[in-house]
């Protein structure tokens, strides 16, 4: 029923009424690729955010958290290629300078500007390049050239990630769109990924924040590529109320539809991040069923998804289910090993903790697929969790050995 009220539309963030965005190369990246993004709302928007849980946080994260607490924003300025993390007092001053300069030239308060950065840690950004870039972005948007937004936040990504949808309400419609980046150093609780989502729905900031947190817990916090957590990452959501729909209120059917749409957008962006994992050749869906608690199910799925031995087995397309049981046993959850059942894309390979009769040719054929589902049934309760991950290839090592 919910899906029938929803359809994909083109245009990304710019498809949402009252929002404009664009990206350019301002010189942070020496290869000419886009590295500076501006997202601008015509009106002040309700703002929500979820941020990295890493204790080492970039100043962009710290400043944006402060502003999201106020619940109102009008613009997002973001750069890629330089994380401006672990850069001390000078890095903090640089972040504030970028906010102040952007606000002054957009003629809006710096308190209404959210800032993000991603890239190499430990280097100060060249603020003059960003200043000039902000001016060029404003001219680009004013000229009607609304291109390059999703490209401008990429680092080791191989493709841009964006999606837009329209949701039919009783007498009107609303739109939700988002862009994201992420390819490496991706693990739950926000890690080396940015996502900016916008909507023209009218919705109060407390309801918006709750909806975003729930969406993130189902999507971005249920993916892992390499188990590493970053210093800069955030998901931001702005709602400017520029559709002709009525305010979405707590407990309403409209809120149910909005949350379904938000979950869809976040889920699609999260999947794109895993598909674009550094050096990834496969997307692996780890489903843990029959756990005592939701937390146990998630911890078990994460333990399997983050196991380098499991991930390399999928890259090598070898049938080594013992690595899955070993990762499960090291997860710290309570379960009975003699009750475990394991399936590879619907084919049972473990029955009550032991390998069972299966057709090896069929399993090897499954392992050649680009998307594989692993189902682990603990037979210990009724809670479940699904985590998306990628395999671990030689290319991942090459990329990260040379990223500097």
UniProtKB/TrEMBL annotation:
One of the protein's GO biological processes: ornithine biosynthetic process
Residues flagged as site, Involved in the stabilization of negative charge on the oxyanion by the formation of the oxyanion hole: 118-119
Keyword Cell membrane found: no
Pathway assignment: Amino-acid biosynthesis; L-arginine biosynthesis; L-ornithine and N-acetyl-L-glutamate from L-glutamate and N(2)-acetyl-L-ornithine (cyclic): step 1/1; Amino-acid biosynthesis; L-arginine biosynthesis; N(2)-acetyl-L-ornithine from L-glutamate: step 1/4
Keyword Iron-sulfur: no
Compartment(s): Cytoplasm
Catalysed reactions listed for this entry: L-glutamate + acetyl-CoA = N-acetyl-L-glutamate + CoA + H(+); N(2)-acetyl-L-ornithine + L-glutamate = N-acetyl-L-glutamate + L-ornithine
GO cellular component: cytoplasm
SUPFAM superfamilies registered for this protein in UniProt: DmpA/ArgJ-like
Keywords: Acyltransferase, Amino-acid biosynthesis, Arginine biosynthesis, Autocatalytic cleavage, Cytoplasm, Multifunctional enzyme, Transferase
Annotated GO MF terms: L-glutamate N-acetyltransferase activity; L-glutamate N-acetyltransferase activity, acting on acetyl-L-ornithine as donor
E.C. number: 2.3.1.35, 2.3.1.1
Catalytic residues identified in the record: 192 (nucleophile)
Site location (Cleavage): 191-192
Residues where substrate binds: 155, 181, 192, 278, 400
Family, similarity comment: Belongs to the ArgJ family.
Function: Catalyzes two activities which are involved in the cyclic version of arginine biosynthesis: the synthesis of N-acetylglutamate from glutamate and acetyl-CoA as the acetyl donor, and of ornithine by transacetylation between N(2)-acetylornithine and glutamate.
Oligomer status and interactors: Heterotetramer of two alpha and two beta chains.
PANTHER family assigned: ARGININE BIOSYNTHESIS BIFUNCTIONAL PROTEIN ARGJ, ARGININE BIOSYNTHESIS BIFUNCTIONAL PROTEIN ARGJ, MITOCHONDRIAL
UniProt xrefs under NCBIfam families: ArgJ, PRK05388.1
Annotated protein name in UniProt: Arginine biosynthesis bifunctional protein ArgJ
Protein source organism: Candidatus Schekmanbacteria bacterium RIFCSPLOWO2_12_FULL_38_15
């Amino acid at each position: 029923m919910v899906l029938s009220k929803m359809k994909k539309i083109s245009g990304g963030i710019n498809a949402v009424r009252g929002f404009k965005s664009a990206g350019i190369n301002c010189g942070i990246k020496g290869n000419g690729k886009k590295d500076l993004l501006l997202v601008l709302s015509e009106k002040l928007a309700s703002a929500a955010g979820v941020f990295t849980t890493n204790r080492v946080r970039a100043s962009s994260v710290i400043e944006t958290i402060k502003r999201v607490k106020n619940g109102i924003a009008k613009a997002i300025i973001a750069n890629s290629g330089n994380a401006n993390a672990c850069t001390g007092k000078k890095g903090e001053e640089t972040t504030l300078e970028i906010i102040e300069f952007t606000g002054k030239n957009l003629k809006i308060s710096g308190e209404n500007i959210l800032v993000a950065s991603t890239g190499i840690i430990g280097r100060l950004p060249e603020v003059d390049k960003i200043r000039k870039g902000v001016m060029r972005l404003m001219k680009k948007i004013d000229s009607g050239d609304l291109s390059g937004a999703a490209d401008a936040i990429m680092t080791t990504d191989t493709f841009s990630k964006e999606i837009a949808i329209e949701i039919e309400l009783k007498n009107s419609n609303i739109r939700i769109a988002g862009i994201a980046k992420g390819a490496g150093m991706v693990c739950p609780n926000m890690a080396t990924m940015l996502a900016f989502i916008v909507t023209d729905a009218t919705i109060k900031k407390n309801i918006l924040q709750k909806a975003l947190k729930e969406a993130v817990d189902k999507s971005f916090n249920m993916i892992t590529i390499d188990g590493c957590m970053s210093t800069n990452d955030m998901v931001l959501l702005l709602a400017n109320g520029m559709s002709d729909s009525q305010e979405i209120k707590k407990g309403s059917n409209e809120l149910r539809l909005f949350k379904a749409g938000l979950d869809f957008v976040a889920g699609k962006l999260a999947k794109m991040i895993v598909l674009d994992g550094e050096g990834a050749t496969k997307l692996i869906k780890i489903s843990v069923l029959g756990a005592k608690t939701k937390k146990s199910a998630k911890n078990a799925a994460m333990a399997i998804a983050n196991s380098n031995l499991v991930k390399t087995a999928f890259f090598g397309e070898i049938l080594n289910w013992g690595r899955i049981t070993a990762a499960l046993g090291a997860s710290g959850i309570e379960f009975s090993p003699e009750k475990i059942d394991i399936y590879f894309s619907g084919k049972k390979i473990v029955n009550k903790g032991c390998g069972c009769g299966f057709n090896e040719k069929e399993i090897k054929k499954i392992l050649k697929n680009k998307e594989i589902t692993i189902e682990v049934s603990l037979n210990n309760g009724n809670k479940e969790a699904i985590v998306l991950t990628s395999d671990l290839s030689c290319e991942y090592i090459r990329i990260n050995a040379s990223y500097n």
